[in-house]
Amino acid sequence: MQNKTWTTRDIPNLSGKVAIITGANSGLGFESALEMARKGAIVILAVRNLGRGRAALDKITTELEGGSLEQMKLDLSDQESIKQFVNDFNQKYDRLDILLNNAGIMAVPQGKTAQGFELQLGVNHLGHFALTGLLMDKLLSTPGSRVVNVSSKAANGGKMNFDDLMSEEKYSPIGAYSQSKLANLLFTFELQRRLEEVGAGTIALAAHPGGSKTNLANASDFGPFFRFIMNNFMMKLVQEAEKGALPQLFAATAPDAKPAQYYGPNGFMEMRGSHPKEADIPSQALNAEDARKLWEISEKLTAVSYGFLEKKPSLI
Ligand SMILES: NC(=O)c1ccc[n+]([C@@H]2O[C@H](COP(=O)([O-])OP(=O)(O)OC[C@H]3O[C@@H](n4cnc5c(N)ncnc54)[C@H](OP(=O)(O)O)[C@@H]3O)[C@@H](O)[C@H]2O)c1
Predict the structure, then answer these.
(1) For the domain 8-315, what is the CATH superfamily, name and number?
(2) What's the pLDDT score for residue 315?
(3) CA–CA separation, 97 vs 140, rounded Å?
(4) To test the ligand 1 pocket, which listed residue (105, 124, 151) has its Cβ within 8 A of the most ligand atoms?
(5) Is 177 one of the annotated active-site residues of the chain?
(6) ∠ CA 210-211-214 to the nearest 5 degrees?
(7) In what helix (H) or strand (E) does residue 302 lie, and over which residues does it extend?
(8) What's the whole-number mean pLDDT along residues 51-56?
(9) What b/e string do you get for 107-144 counting C-beta neighbours within 10 Å, with b at 16 or more?
(10) CA-to-CA distance for 268 and 137, rounded, in angstroms?
(11) Are 142 and 97 a contacting pair, CB within 8 Å?
(12) pLDDT confidence band for 308 (50 / 70 / 90)
């Protein structure tokens, strides 16, 4: 199936497949959960608030008149919650076909995770890095499994500030968001490189939704000028969440989706579109040295080491 015409109708039958979607109670995660459940997947809504998770789950089961879904608590701003989530998941499931690392926060006021990481890097990148690492055995033992990381056009303006990764010396809400979304891409490409080195069947790829109407900007601290631009111009350009979710649904389910590829909307400046396309990858996301450095720092900070590398000690 060509992605030029691809829509949710082209999602293959997912019966028997197990998918975890982080942040599945809202926006793009919700749309992804709905469409994957519609095609028969067993979908785990990984949510930080079980009340909001229950409301989303009920909405999907009502719409589908059924579906195999359940929610499990996951707070990506706390490494203990991530470990607990993986324990809960492992006790119930013996396979993991799709890990959709979708949850995110954008341009929030300065804050810290439970372990003291800058909040946006902590939730958007380090939380997903730890989650993926802890689920790696399950992914590796599931034929054809995928890890999909949801990035953003904001990554194009991103810069890895390794000298002040946690923005302690200088904090900019948008700068920290852009850095975290660039980290999503660097992580994707480095993960794919490492998976390939050990000949794993699991693939890593990424997607971005352009601009989509979700709850993402509700907690943002843009400052008065950018907030005015957002409310008066950008919000008029953005598309519905169901369209924004298409690239990540393509990456997560299409047989044609390729490893280390990045998918986005096919319309004006990749900000909107009715079908997914291969997105432009910002040059700084292809910096293999930064990717390796970020990986090593992420392993140290989260204390999560990727088990599959143990098979090839020369890589560590
Ligand atoms: N919307 C856009 O235009 C746009 C553009 C580019 C990229 N993106 C990316 O798309 C992804 C999805 O965002 P969205 O637009 O769908 O926004 P959204 O409607 O706000 O959904 C974000 C989801 O992430 C969850 N989340 C936030 N912090 C979390 C934490 N600590 N632990 C676990 N879950 C957490 C939220 O939970 P609560 O509901 O409990 O807050 C919510 O379910 C994000 O990665 C975002 O960066 C979106």
Answers:
(1) NAD(P)-binding Rossmann-like Domain (3.40.50.720)
(2) 35
(3) 9
(4) 105
(5) yes
(6) 125
(7) helix 288-302
(8) 98
(9) bbeeeebebebbbbbbbbbbbbbbbbbbbbebbbebee
(10) 40
(11) yes
(12) low
The structural domains of the chain, with segments of one domain joined by +, span 8-315
Residue with tokens 């299409």: 254
Amino acid at 280: D
Q: In this structure, which residue's CA is closest to atom 1 in ligand 1?
A: 212
Average pLDDT of the residues of the chain? 94
> Of the residues 20, 47, 48, which should be mutated to test ligand 1's pocket, given the most ligand atoms within 8 Å of the CB?
48
pLDDT at 307 over 90: no
pLDDT of 160: 98
Residue 27 Cβ inside 6 Å of ligand 1? The answer reads yes
Residue 230 confidence class, pLDDT cut points 50, 70, 90: confident
72: number of Cβ within 10 Å: 17
Nearest atom (ligand 1) to Cα of 106? 47
Burial 191-213 (b: 16+ CB within 10 A, else e): bbbbbeeeebebbbbbbbbbbbe
The CB of 23 under 6 Å from ligand 1? The reply is yes
What spacing in Å lies between the alpha carbon of 7 and ligand 1's midpoint?
22
Q: How far is the CA of 261 from the centre of ligand 1 (A)?
A: 21
Nearest CA residue ID for atom 7, ligand 1: 152
Alpha-helical runs (H) found in 163-205: 173-197
